[in-house]
Amino acid sequence: xxxxxxxxxxxxxxxxxxxxxxxxxxxxxxxxxxxxxxxxxxxxxxxxxxxxxxxxxxxxxxxxxxxxxxxxxxxxxxxxxxxxxxxxxxxxxxxxxxxxxxxxxxxxxxxxxxxxxxxxxxxxxxxxxxxxxxxxxxxxxxxxxxxxxxxxxxxxxxxxxxxxxxxxxxxxxxxxxxxxxxxxxxxxxxxxxxxx
Length: 196
What we know:
The chain has strands at 5-10, 14-15, 18-20, 33-38, 42-43, 50-53, 55-61, 65-66, 74-77, 88-94, 98-99, 108-111, 123-129, 133-134, 143-146, 148-154, 158-159, 168-171, 178-180, 184-185. It has 196 residues and is mainly beta. The strands form three sheets. The chain has a seven-stranded parallel sheet, with no helix packed on it. The chain has a seven-stranded parallel sheet with strand order 2-5-8-11-14-17-20, with no helix packed on it. Strands 3-6-9-12-15-18 form a six-stranded parallel sheet, with no helix packed on it. The radius of gyration is 15 Å and the shape is globular.
């Protein structure tokens, strides 16, 4: 149905599977997903593990977000009308770490329709990660991406991965304060292709 899904609470881990609001079509989702609370970790399994909605309320994950295959362990808002003008995620709080996997776009937080880094237009509220944010071993694995970002706070280190745009915080518009308590460490990508 196209109606709002108000709140989802999971006491332990979410391993694979999808929490979504409304009907999915190639342009996005048709409804709002309210708050999502996961007491344990959000773990991708293969290409599964998604939190999707047109708009998404506060997302709270007690443990880690751990990517696996392509698009796994992703939190993404985008509307089915294709305009994305109101697409948003209220806030994301991760108690432990955000860890990119082996798949493209794994362990990704994205607001607004984007393919990799193609101009997402949605608003992303405050993002808080208790420990590390680590890039993965494929493109866009371990990525925060939105049209605007209110703030990002990382309690540990931000560590790049081994491919393009891994361990990256990216906004196509405004971005508020970014605080990294420990280290900012580049990845081990090699080659001659320019990053931009």
